[in-house]
Amino acid sequence: MLHYESLIHAEKEAIYEAFLKAFSDYPVRMDMSFAQFEKILKRRGFDPNLSVGAFDEDCLVGFILNGCRKWNGKATAYDVGTGVIPQFRKQGITKQMLQTAKQQFSDLGAEQYILEVLTSNTSAANIYRKNGFTVEREFLCCQMERGKDRFYSIHQTEHIVNPDWELFKSFWDFPPSWQNSIPSIEALSESFLISVVRNNNQIIGYGIIDKSTGEIPQIAVDKKWRSKGIGSSILADLIEHTDAGQIKILNIDTRSKQMLSFISAAGFYHTVNQFEMKLNL
């Protein structure tokens, strides 16, 4: 008989093992190390008190890993990852875990719940729709093999450790997704390098890269300084300062035509699309 409870008493290693099993047939490879898994949890604000597990006796067979932060001025819960191991699927486990999680959020006072789901994963997206979620945005994800980038640095770049977030936000065409947001970067700040270009000592463009994974959560240029090679120079510098063989940019708002044009010219290729979905609580 399955039972549902928070993950406050679950060992992180057991969650990791269940995660690998649940995502073993996922369209995007998720065969990460335990250390990488821990980094993802920390970056996205995982809170075991707000997370739900489905247990077959003492074995974790399904999970919703959640976090909670302020998001657009509201107390917001976020689905870090949802999965059910293959042999326990099609039993209504995800639906039951969602109901359990929503009760926890209500007790917490969260105002909304957000998540991302692959646009190709129609069964999961339909489950969320049936539970009251609506699509907020569509994201594009892309990557590039290191060494195949087409951009070179023509502006002097430098690295900083104390970002001026309010200035950086003024460069944005769209707010970043949860995993690329300012709190997510600050939660794992030691993993990131920030490259900037200045004009008369004023920052006019910046980019951020995970030094080990090659993921770029944010890159933006002052609107008055675009199409002058600044973004290209920042991208070239970021690529030079990562150990990864692949460079990834995840969750680009598909409405941002300039960003899509930029990454295409740089040599990135499309991998998957995701919906950002929201449930008002």
Automatic annotation (TrEMBL):
Q: Could you tell me what this protein is called? A: GNAT family N-acetyltransferase
**Domain N-acetyltransferase span(s) in chain numbering:** 2-149, 158-281
What are the recorded GO MF terms, alphabetically?
acyltransferase activity, transferring groups other than amino-acyl groups
Please name the taxonomic classification of the source: Bacteria, Bacillati, Bacillota, Clostridia, Eubacteriales
Q: Matching SUPFAM superfamilies, A to Z?
A: Acyl-CoA N-acyltransferases (Nat)
Origin: domain of life: Bacteria
